[in-house]
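Continuing the batch. This is chain 6 of the set; chains 1 through 5 are on the previous pages. Same settings as before, nothing changed between runs. Recording input and output for traceability.
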Amino acid sequence: MNDQTAETARLMKVAEAIVREMDRQGIAEAVADLGFDVMELARVAIRAADGDVISFRRPLA
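Output for chain 6:
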């Protein structure tokens, strides 16, 4: 998927789905208050869907 417009559209669709699901679960506002970056999660979800191995970051102590 080399077309920048298609990549952006895919990113937005994934981000919207994440926000919709968080809203459905009632946690959207809480994670937003914590500074959660939905776009970063959307990018990682796309990479994982494309078959990339995603390593987990260690939580800050």
